[in-house]
């Protein structure tokens, strides 16, 4: 399946991105070499920008892998903010801890290992922003849990909602992931609690503002 953004335009947009610092570049190299599906710099900049725009201080991330998006979020919340990192893989968490320490933001990150949905349930308080990047099959369940945990005006952001373009095509009977993403996209646009926009950048980024 083709990329969402036409190749030449994607290359042009990438070339405009300012050079990242050494730790971020190292994470990007590691992700490319080991096929870790990080959200990438272009989408991370959108998430960072939105987090800053709403003055986010408490952030929960569902599916953090090596901590790439965590690092952007930790920078966005500033030294008095907190970001909850979650991943089911302890090796990912150790790698993330190391990068976050070297980037100087570890003290504002709580690293939690286990199922992100269960970890959200067992973490108290409301959040300004929840970033959802777990297994796509879990997106509807993740949104049902996450939205009540946001303050009004908070953001629920999800990656990969265009699913390499498959989301825009009729899904075959056995393509459950595409069916679930299509269901999720309908849910977030129809929910009276959310105001949703899908940004067709990279693999599609859904940005939902909690309205009520
Ligand atoms: C797409 S990657 C996350 C990338 C990361 N958000 C970034 O952009 O840098 C998804 C990660 O979520 C983890 N994961 C998937 N489902 C999960 C779940 N229910 N609970 C915890 N971790 C989960 C996987 O182990 C994987 O590392």
What does it look like?
The chain is α/β, with parallel strands linked by helices. Helices cover 42% and strands 21% of the residues. It has a seven-stranded mixed beta sheet with strand order 3-2-1-4-5-7-6, with helices on both faces. Strand 4, helix 7 (139-146) and strand 5 (150-159) form a beta-alpha-beta unit. The longest helix has 15 residues, at 176-190. The radius of gyration is 16 Å and the shape is globular. It starts with 6 loop residues before the first helix and ends with a strand. Bound molecules: S-adenosylmethionine.
What would the keywords be for this entry?
globular, binds S-adenosylmethionine, seven-stranded mixed sheet, alpha/beta, Rossmann fold, 7 strands, 8 helices, 212 residues
The CATH superfamily title: Vaccinia Virus protein VP39
Strand order of the largest sheet: 3-2-1-4-5-7-6
Average residue pLDDT: 97
Strand content: 15-25%
Oligomer: single chain
Which kinds of small molecule does this entry bind, naming each only once? S-adenosylmethionine
């Amino acid at each position: 399946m083709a990329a969402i953004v036409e190749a030449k335009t994607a290359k042009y947009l990438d070339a405009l991105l300012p050079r990242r610092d050494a730790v971020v570049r190292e994470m990007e190299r590691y992700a490319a070499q080991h096929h870790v599906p990080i959200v990438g710099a272009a989408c991370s900049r959108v998430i960072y920008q939105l987090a800053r725009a709403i003055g986010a201080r408490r952030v929960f991330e569902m599916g953090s892998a090596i901590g790439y998006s965590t690092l952007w979020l930790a920078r966005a919340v500033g030294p008095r903010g907190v970001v909850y990192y979650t991943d089911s893989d302890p090796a990912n968490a150790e790698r993330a801890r190391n990068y976050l320490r070297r980037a100087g933001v570890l003290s504002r990150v709580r690293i939690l290992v286990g199922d992100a949905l269960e970890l959200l349930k067992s973490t108290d308080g409301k959040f300004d922003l929840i970033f959802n990047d777990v297994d796509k099959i879990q997106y509807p369940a993740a949104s049902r849990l996450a939205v009540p945990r946001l303050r009004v005006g908070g953001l629920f952001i999800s990656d990969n909602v265009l699913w390499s373009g498959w989301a825009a095509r009729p899904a075959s009977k056995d393509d459950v992931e595409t069916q679930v993403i299509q269901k999720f996209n309908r849910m977030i646009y129809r929910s009276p609690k959310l105001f949703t926009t899908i940004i067709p950048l990279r693999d599609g980024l859904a940005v939902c503002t909690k309205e009520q």
